[in-house]
């Protein structure tokens, strides 16, 4: 080995040993140094600068951009005039739906979409009245078919409906064969009932069944009048002609007896009181009675007087007896006539009752009554049927939607499928953001609050809070989690938006009108006296308390006023 190489090796060994010793020495520490190294660093204050800026408080939520006002729709009833199986022959198409368009076809019949808030709920037939008809008429006028505003499905409205169907290539619903047959049957039933009534009425008018009773009543009335007239005449007469003749004869006999008595008495008186003899030369009259002499016997004359008196008494007695007989005969006759009147009245009442009962209970009259009821019933049935007979709109052929145009967003039935429940879901043409917030945050929200939505691209759009809580529930949407309330926002513009996009929405619940001094909420402490203060660092690790008044809080910061200025540093930790 050369000397030069040996020297180099020695030098390298020395350098290696020296390096190892230095390395070991750098890792060795004394106990004091080790304790000092492990001790905690001295605490320092953590501060934040007082800022002057506008403070805005927002409620942030995640939502989805969708078309607004989703509304599931279904048919109100059958399409077409029969209740046969309802099968879709043309399904609804997704996209724009305008008023008057055919939404779909069922069994080859159209289903029209019209604007209106009253749901279709019945068959609109001739004569139908109501708000749904008035709503239909307004829709027809908007579409240019013309229709009155009567609220009645009348001929003019039927013509307008027919034009709407024709324009779309369909025929308005006409009465079915079964309806026509039923209408003809009811019409013939009315005719038959009317003919029966006319026949029975004719029979009744002829009075063949009650004619004897009518005659009997007429006779009874005549008899009653005769009896009453006879009674009246009898009451006006004191005696009958026969009785008057008898009384006249009796009176004549009395007068004759009186004359005879007077003559006898005169003769007797003359006999008892003879006249003085006339002077000589006087001639006695030819009619002078024989003059009794003094010796004349007057017994005969007296007998004549007595007989005359007896005859007169007999004549008076006969007169009284005739008068009594006449009175008794009159009373008896009046009684008989009164009885005859009563009997005639009874006969008349009996005849009237018999005729009345005969009219009420007679078979012919009963037939007439029954025929009239049959006519009325047949007419009522025909009228009831005719009320809805004619061109009609089956309940399933029109769907009234609150707003049109709209969008068919979801189709629930395909061509060939049976139509039973929901057929589609329509939405408005505007977008909305659906989401939810915690119940505590929902208390801060009010409809109409300003908001913004932010896309994943960072682009933001202005929006407004449309609804909160139950009013923000969307039909068919999932229910929010427990304790959360649904929220609905409406973007101010739809340009660049796409349905189904996830967005972040911020609803502004409060904001200062101008820039204010703002500090972190952690910087504000409440002292024992209840006043809010902050600690301001005026020098390194030196602070002072400054009383402040707080305002709006947002995003961890709070508005403050007091002896502060922008740029001051307030202690948020480490005090």
From TrEMBL:
Residues 516-575 form the Multidrug resistance protein MdtA-like C-terminal permuted SH3 domain. It is found in: Cell envelope. InterPro entries: MdtA-like_C, Peptidoglycan-bd-like, PGBD-like_sf, PGBDSf, UPF0194_transport. Residues 305-361 form a coiled coil. Keywords: Coiled coil. PANTHER family: EFFLUX SYSTEM COMPONENT YKNX-RELATED (PTHR32347:SF14). This is Peptidoglycan-binding protein.
């Amino acid at each position: 080995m050369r000397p030069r190489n040996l020297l180099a090796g020695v030098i390298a060994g020395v350098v290696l040993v020296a390096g190892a010793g230095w390395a070991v020495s750098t890792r060795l520490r004394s106990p004091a140094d080790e304790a000092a190294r492990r001790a905690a660093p001295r605490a320092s204050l953590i501060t934040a600068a007082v800022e002057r800026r506008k403070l805005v408080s927002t409620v942030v939520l995640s939502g989805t951009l969708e078309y607004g006002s989703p509304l599931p729709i279904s048919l109100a009833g059958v399409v077409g005039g029969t209740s046969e199986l309802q099968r879709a022959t043309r399904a609804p198409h997704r996209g724009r739906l305008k008023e008057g368009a055919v939404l779909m076809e069922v069994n080859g019949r159209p289903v029209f979409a019209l604007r209106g808030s009253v749901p279709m709920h019945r068959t609109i037939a001739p004569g139908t009245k109501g708000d749904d008809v008035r709503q239909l008429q307004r829709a027809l006028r908007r579409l240019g078919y013309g229709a009155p505003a009567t609220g009645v499905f009348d001929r003019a409205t039927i013509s307008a409906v027919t034009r709407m169907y024709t324009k779309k290539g369909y025929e308005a619903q006409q009465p079915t064969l079964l309806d026509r047959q039923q209408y003809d049957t009811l019409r013939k039933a009315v005719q038959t009932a009317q003919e029966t009534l006319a026949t029975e009425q004719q029979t009744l008018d002829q009075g063949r069944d009650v004619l004897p009773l009518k005659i009997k009543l007429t006779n009874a009335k005549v008899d009653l009048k005769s009896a009453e007239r006879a009674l009246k005449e009898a009451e006006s007469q004191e005696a009958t002609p026969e009785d008057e003749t008898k009384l006249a004869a009796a009176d004549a006999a009395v007068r004759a007896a009186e004359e005879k008595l007077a003559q006898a008495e005169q003769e007797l008186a003359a006999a008892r009181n003879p006249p003085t003899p006339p002077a000589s030369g006087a001639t006695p009259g030819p009619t002078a009675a024989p003059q009794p002499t003094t010796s004349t016997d007057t017994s005969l004359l007296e007998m004549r007087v007595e007989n005359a008196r007896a005859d007169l008494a007999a004549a008076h007695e006969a007169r009284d007896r005739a008068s009594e007989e006449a009175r008794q005969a009159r009373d008896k006759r009046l009684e008989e006539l009164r009885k005859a009147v009563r009997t005639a009245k009874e006969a008349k009442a009996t005849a009237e009752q018999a005729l009345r009962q005969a009219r009420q209970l007679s078979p012919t009259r009963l037939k007439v009554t029954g025929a009239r009821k049959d006519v009325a019933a047949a007419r009522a049935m025909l009228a009831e049927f005719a009320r809805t007979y004619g061109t009609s709109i089956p309940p399933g052929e029109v769907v009234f939607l609150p707003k049109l145009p709209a969008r068919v967003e979801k189709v629930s039935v395909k061509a060939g499928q049976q139509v039973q429940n929901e057929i589609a879901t329509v939405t408005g043409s505007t977008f909305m953001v659906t989401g939810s917030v915690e119940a505590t945050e929902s208390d801060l929200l009010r409809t109409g609050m300003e908001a913004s939505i932010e896309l994943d691209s960072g682009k933001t759009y202005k929006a407004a809070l449309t609804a909160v809580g139950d009013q923000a529930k969307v039909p068919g949407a999932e229910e929010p989690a427990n304790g959360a309330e649904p929220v609905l926002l409406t973007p101010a513009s739809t340009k660049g938006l796409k349905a189904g996009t996830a967005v972040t929405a911020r609803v502004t619940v409060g904001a200062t009108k101008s820039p204010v001094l703002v500090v972190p909420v952690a910087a504000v402490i409440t002292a024992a006296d209840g006043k809010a203060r902050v600690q301001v660092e005026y020098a390194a690790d030196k602070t002072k308390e400054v009383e402040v008044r707080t305002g709006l809080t947002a995003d961890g910061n709070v508005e403050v006023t007091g002896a502060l200025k922008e740029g001051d540093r307030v202690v948020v930790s480490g005090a």
